[in-house]
Amino acid sequence: GIIHWLLITPTNFGEIFAANIIWKFFLGIIDLMAIIFFANILIGTPIKPFFQGSIFCTYILMSTACIGMGMILESVILLLRKGSFLCIATYQLSIVFGGVYFPTYLLPKFTSFISQLLPITHALKIIRYALTHAGEPQPLLLFFPLLLTTFIYFGVGFFALQKSLAYTQRNGFLLKDFNE
Questions:
Q1: Which helix (H) or strand (E) element contains residue 28?
Q2: Closest by alpha carbon to 61, among 7, 3, 124?
Q3: Which residues contact 24 (CB under 8 A, 6 or more apart)?
Q4: Which partner for 99 in 104, 119, 145, 161 could form a disulfide, CB atoms 3.0-4.6 Å apart?
């Protein structure tokens, strides 16, 4: 995929990244609109402009944070040349500690720090608030932790991936593994 393109084409990282990600954003927005539409039909969730706006903003921030987390994991995998299990482990830990199965306040106290580092925790708080307080404006303070984790994960991920790609290209790891 992306690493192959980086090796055999003169295209820069930003263009390859955009080509692989932008269509997924649009597909996700279509999915989100379908979910909101069917939630309205099946369980009567109100469709109000502010509700939709906060859900869309949450989706974009959450997706961007997940992209950043993926870039961090890919950096580690490139440097170790192993570790595809890291993606599955991160996904499972995010679901457990992020509040998908049950609210994070039910978790043991020592895990609350982990929960606060995960963007899904903050995204779920925003979505749950939007569903239970439909039609009311959401406090901007709910968006701040998600915005912060998004900037941190995406910034660190972008930097780490560029550095790990440069390191592996300089040391020949990518070409050696790619030809095997």
A1: helix 13-43
A2: 124
A3: 63
A4: 104
- DSSP classification of residue 140: G
CB 98 within 8 A of CB 66: no
> Per residue in 31-88, pLDDT tens?
777 877 777 788 776 666 556 677 778 888 888 898 888 888 888 887 777 766 777 8
Q: Are the CB atoms for 69 and 157 separated by under 8 Å?
A: yes
Q: Look at the block and give the residue holding tokens 């009567």.
A: 44
| Tens-digit pLDDT profile for residues 87-140 | 788 888 888 888 888 778 888 888 888 888 999 888 888 877 877 776 566 677
For 15, 81, 119, 125, the CA distances from 132, given in Å and listed in that order, are 40, 46, 20, 11
Q: What is the pTM of this model?
A: 0.74
